[in-house]
Amino acid sequence: MNSTLAKKLKNIWTILLFLLPVVIIYNIREKGDESKRFYKAMEISGVIDSIYYGDKKEASVKINNKIYSLYYFGIRKGEDIKVGDSLYKAKKEKNLELHSKTKTGEYICTEIYKMK
Predict the structure, then answer these.
(1) How far apart are CA 66 and CA 19, in angstroms?
(2) 20 to 30 Å CA-CA from 39: which of 70, 71, 101, 112?
(3) More confident position, 38 or 10
(4) H or E element in which residue 30 lies
């Protein structure tokens, strides 16, 4: 009787040791996707006040006193974004539109970036 109980406990322990890393990895991935879901649900609209670049040359922009990371759109240092350009992303959309100012002062859509 004791040997069968010991075998059952050993089997349960083996299953738990297998499931624990799976649960941990799943939770870590969900936390990483949380900010991506946050950016997808967010509306971005306005003229770029300033541009910042991170350690890996990812761009962040300041629009209306809020800083938005452009990491999920793959925009890095050297892309065609400039202070004074306008960015627009509707809520629950994956496309970020870059509108550049023409010589006449009007904004035209010059680039569309897709969220990774």
Answers:
(1) 41
(2) 101
(3) 10
(4) helix 2-41
- What does the alpha-carbon distance between residue 78 and residue 64 come to, in Å, rounded to a whole number? 23
Q: What is the mean pLDDT of residues 82-103?
A: 91
CA distance 46 to 57: 22
Residue 16 in tokens: 């738990």
* SS3 of residue 80 by DSSP: coil
The structural domains of the chain, with segments of one domain joined by +, span 1-41, 43-116
Write the CB contacts of 112 (distance below 8 Å, at least 6 apart in sequence): 95, 96, 97, 98
- Stated pTM of the model: 0.64
Distance CA 82, CA 73 (A): 16
Tokens of 104: 């006449």
Cα–chain center distance at 52 = 16
Q: Which residue has the tokens 């004074």?
A: 84
CA 48 vs. chain centroid, Å, equals 19
